[in-house]
Task: inverse folding
């Protein structure tokens, strides 16, 4: 039998044609995400906030710790103005609020992202191990999570900060200690369904060690859940940090965070210096909105039937 | 049922023990003694102070004494800073206030949230639905420490309707702002959860059957839809309670209501570990008991749970 060479060449060409490349789950998700107007708005807000945090200092006329004695203690003179370089006004001590807001946004974003990253790493591994091994190990590991979740963590976190000194490092540790709990529960639930799939069974049948199965077959399939949850976790971490800073127990001067700035602004509001509350509050709110919208958009994009 | 309750108690007690021991250990391994803030203190006096508060005993003995006093006598010991007041005095002073506006906020959040959610679900895609969804999205980024200054700005500084702080058991005008500030974000979450679960229930088969039987709409909603729709709301009440308790700290600090949260923050700033631990343990106990109650209610409503 003779095979027509030209037909085969054409077939080969057709199967390798670029425009019939199958749409992967991710390509589909990306398409759905970019069709979602709320998610796009959230993405836009986030890009704006991140750009503000990264490059804001380039356009700031003042340093965040320098004191402008011309406006210090003078409510009217410290109002926002382009002329003297205080675009967002100045605070009660005469420090430039624009530069302070840039720094506050940086710290808040950093705490949020790092808290969420810790959750991703610790929570994913913990949940995957617990769910995959099951049985008594699972029971013990999840009971531990239950116990930790029942503790009013904010009080323990404040206890930690007071005892070991109020530093950013301690905040990261404290936020990281609590952020992974919920994540590990969700990952465990997902692992329980994944571990009964045929490909995991096949891997087990040919003698792949458990940890390799977790790493090669379970973890990659958790990416969707983990990414969505991590995005929604960032605003919660920012809220936690702002809560503590609002009480004056968070980062210490001259460092600041959005929560600390909101607290300062709320304290001086009765003197008519509303900008001291308004600008930090604005960035706080759009940051939270941004993360919520992007997180919701990602969830809808990755799981279209849940809409 | 009794076995189920006992089982839940069996996890609640180790949780409490873990909370007490962990906070005691945290305090114990803290650098410096609780009295090291007192300047130029001679070593003999320090030794005497340690002896008076029992801090010279071996660690296990300190912990067991503390546990015994707390569990049997409800005695949290003396304050480390205020020589003439015990932790019990400090808690007894603030706790009734916190309990009053806390309970009011909780009830308000549940009642308004559920009503809003159910109405939004029944009148889907009407202006009411959009309003409810809009409010619940907006309120997500308005946590208590953002609501508090905004309320103060509107009702005290601009309209002069409500007192800007303080507390009185006989005058409800003092209660309004704390309750609104504390309950808004939970109200929003409850409304959102109720709406989505109500929509799901309304689309289910047993509701279609009820409609086919010709039952009046009101009866369908109240008798057949509400109960299953409330299950996710009930499981949210536990975490909501925890963060409301935490939020009361903000209310106490911002509105100077004189509740227990203010004592907590003051003790954190004074390094008064005894008060911090007392408050943490008390609120932790409340949380754990509340979760127990929620679990029991859940088991009672959901026929799928077998004890």
Result:
């Amino acid at each position: 039998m003779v095979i027509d060479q030209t037909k085969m060449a054409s077939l080969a060409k057709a199967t390798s044609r670029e425009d019939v490349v199958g749409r992967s789950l991710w390509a589909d998700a990306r398409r759905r995400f970019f069709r979602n107007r709320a998610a796009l708005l959230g993405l836009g807000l986030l890009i704006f906030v991140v750009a503000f945090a990264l490059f804001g200092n380039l356009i700031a006329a003042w340093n965040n710790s320098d004191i402008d004695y011309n406006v210090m203690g003078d409510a009217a003179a410290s109002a926002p103005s382009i002329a003297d370089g205080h675009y967002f006004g100045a605070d009660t001590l005469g420090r430039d609020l624009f530069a302070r807001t840039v720094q506050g946004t940086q710290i808040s974003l950093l705490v949020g992202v790092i808290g969420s990253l810790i959750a991703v790493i610790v929570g994913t591994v913990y949940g995957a191990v617990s769910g995959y091994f099951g049985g008594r190990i699972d029971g013990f590991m999840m009971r531990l999570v239950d116990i930790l979740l029942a503790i009013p963590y904010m009080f323990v976190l404040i206890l930690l900060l007071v005892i070991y000194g109020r530093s950013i490092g301690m905040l990261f540790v404290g936020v990281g200690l609590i952020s992974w709990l919920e994540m590990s529960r969700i990952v465990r639930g997902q692992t329980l369904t994944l571990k009964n799939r045929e490909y995991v069974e096949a891997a087990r049948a040919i003698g792949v060690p458990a940890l390799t199965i977790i790493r090669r077959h379970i973890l990659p399939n958790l990416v969707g859940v983990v990414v969505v949850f991590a995005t929604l976790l960032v605003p919660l971490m920012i809220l936690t940090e702002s809560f503590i800073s609002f009480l004056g127990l968070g980062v210490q001067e001259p460092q600041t965070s959005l929560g600390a700035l909101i607290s300062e602004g709320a304290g001086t509001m009765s003197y008519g210096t509303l900008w001291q509350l308004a600008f930090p509050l604005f960035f706080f709110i759009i940051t939270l909105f941004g993360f919520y919208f992007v997180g919701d958009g990602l969830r809808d994009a990755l799981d279209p039937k849940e809409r | 049922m009794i076995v189920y309750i006992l089982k839940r108690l069996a996890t609640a007690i180790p949780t409490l023990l873990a909370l007490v021991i962990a906070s005691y250990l945290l305090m114990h391994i803290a650098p410096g003694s609780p009295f090291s803030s007192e300047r130029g203190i001679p070593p003999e006096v320090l030794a005497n102070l340690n002896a008076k508060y029992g801090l010279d005993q071996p660690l296990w003995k300190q912990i067991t004494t503390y546990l015994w006093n707390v569990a049997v006598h409800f005695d949290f010991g003396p304050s480390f800073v205020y020589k003439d007041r015990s932790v019990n005095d400090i808690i007894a002073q603030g706790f009734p206030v916190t309990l009053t506006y806390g309970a009011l906020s909780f009830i308000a959040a549940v009642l308004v949230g559920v009503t809003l959610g159910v109405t939004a679900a029944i009148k889907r895609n009407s202006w009411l639905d959009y309003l409810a969804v809009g409010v619940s999205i907006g309120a997500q980024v308005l946590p208590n420490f953002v609501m508090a200054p905004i309320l103060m700005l509107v009702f005290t500084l601009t309209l002069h309707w409500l007192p800007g702080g303080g507390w009185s058991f006989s005058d409800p005008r003092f209660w309004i702002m704390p309750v609104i500030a504390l309950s808004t974000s939970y109200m929003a979450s409850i409304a959102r959860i109720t709406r989505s679960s109500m929509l799901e229930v309304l689309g289910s088969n047993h509701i279609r059957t009820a409609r086919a039987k010709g039952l009046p709409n009101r009866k369908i909603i109240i008798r057949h839809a509400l109960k299953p729709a409330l299950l996710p709301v009930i499981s949210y009440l536990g975490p909501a309670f925890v963060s409301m308790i935490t939020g009361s700290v903000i209310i106490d600090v911002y509105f100077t209501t004189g509740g227990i949260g203010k004592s907590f923050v003051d003790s954190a700033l004074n390094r008064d570990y005894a008060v911090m631990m007392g408050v943490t343990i008390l609120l932790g106990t409340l949380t754990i008991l509340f979760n127990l109650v929620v679990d029991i209610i859940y088991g009672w409503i959901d026929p799928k749970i077998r004890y």
